[in-house]
Amino acid sequence: MIIVLEHNAGEPEKRDLKAFLKDKGFRVREIVGEEEIILGAVGTAHVDLREVEVLPGVARVIPITKPYKLASREFKREDTVVQVGPIKIGGQRIVVIAGPCAVESREQIIEAAQCVKESGAVILRGGAFKPRTSPYSFQGLGEKGLKLLKEASEATGMPVISEIVSIEHLDMFKEYVDILQIGARNMQNFELLKKVGALGKPVLLKRGPAATINDLLMSAEYLLANGDDSVILCERGIRTFETYTRNTLDLSAIPVVKKLSHLPILVDPSHGTGIRDKVSSMALAAIAAGADGLIVEVHPEPDRALSDGAQSLYPEQLEKLMRDIEALAPVLGKEVYKLPEYGDDLRTVSVEGPAGGRASAGETVSGGEAKTAGLHKEESVPLRIGFQGERGAFSERAIYGYFQQDKEPVPFVSFKDIFDAILQNKIDYGVIPIENSLAGSIHQNYDLLLRYPDIRIAGEKKIRIVHSLIGLPDAEIKDIRKVYSHPQGLAQCLKFLEKHSEWEQVPYYDTAGAVEFIAREGQKGNAAIAGREAAKVYKMKVLKEGVETNPKNYTRFFVIAPEGKNKIKNPDRASFVLSTLDKPGALYLTLKILAESHLNMKKLESRPFPGKPWEYMFYIDVEIPEDQEVFYRSVNEIKKNTDYFRILGIYKS
Ligand code: PEP
Ligand code: MN
Prior knowledge:
Blueprint: E1 2-5, H1 11-23, E2 27-32, E3 37-42, H2 49-53, E4 58-62, E5 82-84, E6 87-89, E7 93-99, H3 106-119, E8 123-125, H4 143-156, E9 160-163, H5 170-176, E10 179-182, H6 190-199, E11 203-206, H7 213-225, E12 231-235, H8 253-260, E13 265-267, H9 269-273, H10 276-288, E14 293-297, H11 315-328, E15 335-336, E16 349-352, E17 371-375, E18 383-388, H12 394-402, E19 407-412, H13 415-423, E20 429-436, E21 440-441, H14 443-451, E22 455-464, E23 468-471, E24 482-485, H15 487-492, H16 494-498, E25 504-507, H17 511-521, E26 526-530, H18 532-537, E27 541-545, E28 554-562, E29 573-580, H19 586-596, E30 601-608, E31 616-623, H20 628-639, E32 642-651
Parallel strand pairs: 7-8, 7-14, 7-15, 8-9, 9-10, 10-11, 11-12, 12-13, 13-14, 18-19, 18-20, 24-25, 24-26
Antiparallel strand pairs: 1-3, 1-4, 2-3, 5-6, 16-17, 20-21, 20-28, 22-28, 23-26, 23-27, 29-31, 29-32, 30-31
This protein binds phosphoenolpyruvate and manganese (II) ion.
């Protein structure tokens, strides 16, 4: 049963309740959710629910109707996010685990680790004890395989996963691996589940070839009931009458599991299909179906693999798959999880790079060797990151999408306030919108970047804008009379609003602010248009999701920081601003230099030069090639034709 506590229930009530339940023979788990605190009581004991309902501090008691309790959505409404080292599995991120079916040798696993990491996988897989159908097939390297896997982990910084097949190996696995895999064949090896559950380490539980979803969740219950709260499920295909593929990958299991359980679920398209050229399409389908990630077999030389070569991807196939996932993720409102060095983790990677300095016209901008200053983690101090608007704004979502470490979003009234707060050291970073794919540039922020020479662009993040119609918790669409939103929000939902022409449209200064306003007013006839995150923040109800006219609605944000705060190891984008000399062909000359250096220009924007009527500043974004010197050389050329030049940022796009 689930016991929801009253909001004002204190520690003494909680303690007495727990003691009461334990006394009756229940195991008790406390879950602190965003909205309420609940106690989950499970076990074989029986008690009249009314007896619990009358105890002090109890708001209500809900029986769990499913046979699995701790694994059920009834028990925990919010998605579970499993932490593996620095990586979080579940939530809004897509995690890709990749590597060979089996560890075969030091060279093989190190090479595999390096290439899957290069492509963007964040966890390395590799079996050491292989449960093979035939006793004559390669059985794995055993403990030696686990040691090699650990070596590969240390060499690349990637956590590792490997399958455990016997209780006897528990100590070994405790020492060498970060996630224990329970293979399909052992999904119902209940003694193994009990012992592995008691270890308390993250576990990937694969669905058995003949197991129903209910069976899978019951096995997860074994792990949870024995004390493990880091359980990840995995769909890897089931036996059906179809023989073309090795198994039938049951992708419908994903939305079903998502409804029934709070646990994250990954998909294994390799064992799911058994055929290499079917793996990538099923992997993408799995992500589209809502999977939290993938576990994929990749081998440096699949044709020589000692097991499952036919279903192992070539490294370049993984690379292509990762690009496709990257393109698909924003459509689903998700991000692909990246290891710090490959992404833009500003806290863990601090790199002294090319100066890219604040050169005014005439000065020389120098390149120079990028050198890693090393990793330094300050996990206990959350980064303070400023954004404009109310809690739940799209800018806040951009913060969650960009920064992977502990963070505290700090709302500001205006964009200028964010710039000021950075200079006053009140926040570490700011996130500002710069361009919307439908509405164009946010000029105010271009102007601020020019006015604050001590602030630099440190990164960028693009997110898809999905608008929702949001109302009071007890409202229905038929109750709505007035709709509040930022004028842009209203404009972007024109088609939907036209269908409800009787509604009064009220412009508001901010989309999330409009949700805060209707929550405060408490009128059932009021609705707001904003992102669904805002509904969550103000405990409002999403009446309809996806009400924007054009689904290809993206906003690009800049991450801004004080100059010199962070330099990115492998920048691929530069933004600069210049004004050309007042002579014929001046802008053409700039563009010519870019063209001749084969520098790809990504954006050109002109803005009036402050205080100089009819003169213009040009904002230019270019790709930085691998040979960064090419970029710095052409920039120095360009500057000769300008009477103002400044680098706004050198960053990773
Ligand atoms: C594996 O991951 O290598 C494996 C044997 O998977 P499954 O248990 O799903 O067959
Ligand atoms: Mn395999």
